[in-house]
Amino acid sequence: MKLLTKKIKAKLPAICATENIPLNEKIVLCKFFNPCGAGTWYVIEGEKDEDDFIFWGLVDLHEREFGHFSLNELMNLRLPFGLQIERDLYFSDTLLKKVLERKTS
Predict the structure, then answer these.
(1) Average pLDDT of the chain?
(2) Total structural domains in the chain?
(3) For site-directed labelling of 2, which of 23, 34, 40, 54 has its Cα 20 to 30 A away?
């Protein structure tokens, strides 16, 4: 599965482009997840950086925090049974407020 499509790239604001938007009004444009355990990455901003793509968003690895993560890091994570990080194909643009209201898994 392709984690980052041209369609998602076209919608992503550059890193720091949404800094003047209140946190609850930011839009989550993409969701990556670990199919066999903890780990969810909600993408709010992103831009190409040499041979990688850097994202900024909400990272939920047992605890939630905002930060940067890279496409290469996600693609190189190796999980049990040969699985890899996946993109939620059914996720649609969502207010960050709605994501924050959901219970952590």
Answers:
(1) 94
(2) 1
(3) 23
